[in-house]
Automatic annotation (TrEMBL):
Comp. bias regions, Basic and acidic residues: 1-15
Keyword vocabulary terms for this entry: Activator, Cell cycle, DNA-binding, Nucleus, Repressor, Transcription, Transcription regulation
Protein name: Transcription factor E2F8
Residue span(s) of domain E2F/DP family winged-helix DNA-binding: 119-188, 265-351
Any single GO CC term annotated in Swiss-Prot or TrEMBL for this entry: RNA polymerase II transcription regulator complex
Coiled coil: none
Gene coding for it: E2F8-1
DNA sequence: TTCTCCCGCCAGACC
DNA sequence: GGTCTGGCGGGAGAA
């Protein structure tokens, strides 16, 4: 593959002179030349780094100028090439056969066996090299580049089974596509870049990076605790990766599977595994992924309960298979990560730099869980997105019935337009690039309309706000919908919030309006479209209405919510200086992504609610039925999972408490409202920014929060909107305090909130705790960072939020509720620790400051950290092999 | 001893 | 019923 190397997306130079047509059979010299191929490959910098190109070069032919000329001519003229190759093919075949016979005649027994290719020479990687050498990196489009598996297997003298392995991985990268039985089409690297971009995007949306970090964190924890297999298993379960949304094969438009037969057994397909594996690299920083972590993630997405040793080993085997092919493609390179436990095999991404910002490219997931096939979103590819070529295990089929599609489309459009006056425009800022770019023109049009209406009325809204600000800030008023939540956590409660708008600073989730049938209030939760069904199933009172936000996954939500600080810290922990920078960028990028959800007038809500209820419940029934075990398990597992996550929850609470301490109780609504007025409706750009800085609003009916973690992604913020009417004051308080306070810096203010008060908070932790993402919060081993928030992060945040130092607190039923700005350093003072925590990738984050900082926190909360504090720094090094 | 991963059984899907 | 696909894990070579 290095012949073209990583020519990059633009590098269309067809540097390969290989035949473009698979019909041009590779001379059967392969087996006879395997040694030479291997030698050639190994003689280079690394194993399997040199593409063989044997076919072009008849055995024995040196790379002479004449040869090159022939190759060039051949490449230029398919006809000539074909003629030449057919000729060469026949010649070489006969030569090989003769040589083989000769070999057998002259050698016998051990000698012959020794002459047989060694295990290494039969490796999948080498085989893949041979395979790739048959075809050009960039085949001429339009030419028929067919691959006949039988022929290839024969020519490469391997059983077809092996070819499947290669083809499956190549297929995952859209380098080949299946045409029919035993027949594939070769696309070369034409689609590679696009595929990688798509995969990266999907990986980001699925928060694979956080998952990786989470797993590592857990490993650290386990390492210094029980250090037992069981413990590890538990930890993995706890992580919730198993509950991470499943996703199946990601297709590119026009690259969908043509044969239904391929859609079977896809859930464990090498294709899907390969894509996920690649995603891990694309979202990691640095782009090094250990097999162990990859295996855990892959297993987690399948069945946690299956996480026994054999499963793990099997996964590792498969990963090796995939890695071999990817290595042949020169996309990854094997390295070793050395840590205290010893050397761990890992792979480093050596492929092209991939930008996740893909314009106009929308991944097509064969499973609705992957890309939010937001049924309510009139995307051009919606049908494709929601189509379920691959019923996942359990035979899930989430394809929405056409009639329902139409219905929800109508509802969505209706809702958008009508809610515009009081809703923040769903601005498609840079952060929404991914999504917006993929939005159909219709959506764009609707958004534009809403935006115009909004802007036109922004001034009016401001006026309204002034008049009603005080009332709106009154949380005690149960009837006020969408009103007060905003204050509870929003660093800059916006006018929009107070007016019932549900601002979402989460572009990648699928915000869902949950009008509560009984309370008449709406909740906004983020969940995966497919999960929405599940959620609905368990909470009939919920009506899930997807909002056009593409990305999604459970993990995402919580992560995103906390991404501002916690994750940045986290990332920082795992990375070096550069990583920190990258992460910052990452944060910035994330911050740019803003998705606002329009508030829905009650009438509309009810209406849509009714409609949706019908359709969704039906769908859910179906989904439940089809989901069968998974769903049941999800729910059942939720509790154990939540329990297991208790530590995390505690940490979160702890952080919250810490943060609460620093909040001023005497912050009043006026401040809040004033701030809102000040920041109410800035320009588009600023509006977006502000929104981004705001905590993601989220409200969940505590009693019905029985969603499987990872499926329901509650934005654990005491949110603003929401119709907490259904919440008891206590619950409200709990929810509010539940917010994963990311700023637990001891230097922040203190809010006299009693422990008991906080205790009540943990109810909804419920989902939060179950959410794998939240676990990614800088807790435990990384708890140190809670108080050592990377200064650059703080600075960055301070820049944006410097004006939001005043955080109002509210009183709910006599209990003070701290309003904790999520993305805002609630610290009036500057961080005393200026040193940036620059943890190395595989280094356990830790620091002397940890203890000190923790010491200022309540005892019970510290408990969680105690053990992690003892975790020694581990020195990990990555070494190429 | 652990890491790698080849090999081929076998079962589901397809024809 | 035959063939195609590909999940899976035993077990052996390599490190």
């Amino acid at each position: 593959m290095d012949r073209c190397g990583e020519a990059g997306p633009e590098g269309k130079e067809n540097c390969s002179s290989e035949p473009c047509k698979s019909t041009l059979k590779t001379p059967l010299k392969q087996s006879a030349t395997s040694h030479s191929v291997l030698a050639e490959i190994q003689s280079n910098s690394g194993p399997l780094t040199t593409p063989p190109k044997l076919k072009e070069i008849p055995l024995g032919d040196p790379w002479t100028p004449t040869t090159n000329l022939k190759i060039l001519i051949s490449a230029a003229s398919p006809e000539i090439r074909n003629r030449e190759q057919k000729k060469g093919l026949q010649d070489s075949r006969s030569e090989i056969l003769e040589a083989k016979h000769c070999l057998q005649e002259h050698l016998s027994g051990d000698e012959y066996e020794k002459s047989q290719p060694s295990r290494k020479e039969k490796s999948l990687g080498l085989l893949c090299h041979k395979f790739l050498a048959r075809y050009p990196n960039y085949p001429i489009i339009g030419e028929s580049n067919y691959i006949c598996l039988d022929e290839v297997a024969e020519e490469l003298t391997v059983e077809r089974r092996r070819i499947y392995d290669i083809v499956n991985v190549l297929e995952s990268l859209h380098m080949v596509s299946r045409l029919a039985k035993n027949r594939y089409a070769w696309h070369g690297r034409h689609n590679l870049n696009k595929t990688l971009q798509t995969l990266k995007k999907v990986g980001e949306e699925n928060k694979y990076m956080q998952l990786i970090q989470l797993i590592k964190k857990r490993e650290y924890e386990n390492e210094f605790e029980l250090d037992g297999e069981k413990n590890e298993e538990t930890a993995t379960k706890t992580i919730g990766i198993n509950e991470h949304s499943e996703m199946c094969f990601i297709e590119l438009p026009g690259m969908e599977f043509r044969a239904a037969s391929v859609n079977s057994r896809k859930d464990k397909s090498l294709r899907v595994m390969s894509q996920k594996f690649v995603m891990l690299f694309l979202v990691s920083t640095p782009q090094i992924v250990s097999l162990e972590v990859a295996a855990k993630i892959l297993i987690g997405e399948d069945h946690v309960e299956d996480l026994d040793k054999s499963k793990f080993k099997t996964k590792i085997r498969r990963l090796y298979d995939i890695a071999n092919v990817l290595s042949s493609l020169e996309l990854i390179k094997k390295v070793h990560v050395t840590e205290e436990r010893g050397r761990k095999p890992a792979f480093k991404w050596t492929g092209p730099e991939v930008l996740s910002d893909i314009q106009g490219t929308k991944p097509i997931s064969t499973v609705s869980t992957f890309v939010p096939s937001n049924s309510l979103e009139p995307k051009p590819s919606k049908e494709q997105c929601s189509k379920n070529l691959f019923p996942t295990r359990g035979k899930q089929i989430f394809t929405r019935h056409p009639s329902l599609m139409k219905l929800v489309k109508s509802i969505e459009s209706d809702r958008r337009i009508h809610s515009a006056p009081t809703s923040p425009v769903k601005t498609s800022t840079t952060g929404c690039d991914q999504n917006s770019s993929t939005f159909p023109s219709k959506m764009a049009h609707l958004a534009a309309i809403c935006k115009q209406q909004l802007e036109g009325q922004s001034s009016e809204l401001k006026m309204k706000t002034k008049l009603t600000s005080n009332l709106e800030c009154n949380l005690a008023a149960p009837e006020s919908i969408l009103k007060s939540e905003t204050y509870t956590t929003s660093p800059s409660p916006s006018l929009v919030h107070s007016l019932g708008v549900l601002p979402l600073s989460h572009n990648s989730m699928s915000p869902v309006m949950l009008p509560h049938p009984h309370a008449g209030v709406s909740y906004t939760i983020y969940l995966h479209p497919s999960q929405a069904q599940t959620a609905t199933t368990y909470s009939p009172s919920f009506v899930l209405q997807s909002v056009p936000c593409t990305n999604v996954t459970g993990v995402k939500t919580a992560l995103e919510v906390n991404s501002k600080v916690p994750f940045s810290k986290m990332t920082t922990e795992e990375g070096d200086g550069n990583v920190v920078k990258d992460d910052t960028n990452f944060l910035n990028a994330k911050e740019k992504k803003v998705t606002k959800i329009e508030s829905t007038p009650r009438s509309l809500l009810k209406r849509s609610q009714a409609l949706q209820e019908n359709s969704l419940i039906k769908k859910c029934k179906h989904g439940q039925k089809s989901l069968g075990v998974p769903m049941g398990k999800s729910v059942k597992n939720e509790r154990p999972s939540s329990r297991a996550l208790h530590v995390d929850t505690e940490v979160i609470s702890f952080q919250e408490r810490g943060q609460i301490k620093f909040e001023k109780l005497d912050q009043n609504m006026e401040c809040c409202c004033d701030k809102e007025r000040r920041e109410g409706f800035p320009e588009d750009g600023s509006k977006t920014n502000n929104t981004q800085e705001r905590p993601v609003p989220f409200a969940v009916h505590a009693h019905e929060a029985l969603f499987p973690s990872g499926y329901l992604i509650p934005i654990a913020r005491c949110t603003q909107h929401s119709n907490e009417t259904t919440f008891s004051n206590k619950e409200k308080a709990g929810i509010c305090s539940l917010q994963p306070a990311t700023y637990s810096s001891p230097i922040t203010g203190v809010i006299p909130v009693t422990a008991s008060e906080l205790t009540a908070v943990n109810i909804p932790a419920f989902h939060v705790s179950g959410n794998p993402v939240l676990q990614s919060l800088p807790i435990s081993p990384k708890a140190e960072h809670v108080n050592t928030v990377s200064e650059n992060v703080n600075l960055q945040q301070r820049k944006v939020l410097k004006n939001e130092s005043q955080i109002p607190d509210y009183e709910l039923n006599g209990k003070s509720v701290a309003v904790i700005p999520l993305q805002q350093p609630s610290v009036p003072a500057k961080p005393k620790e200026s040193q940036v925590v620059t943890e190395n990738f595989f280094r356990t984050p830790g620091g002397p400051n940890t203890i000190a900082s923790l010491s200022s926190f309540p005892e019970n909360s510290d408990r969680v950290f105690q053990k992690t504090l003892t975790i020694p720094q581990r020195k990990l090094e990555v070494s190429d092999d």
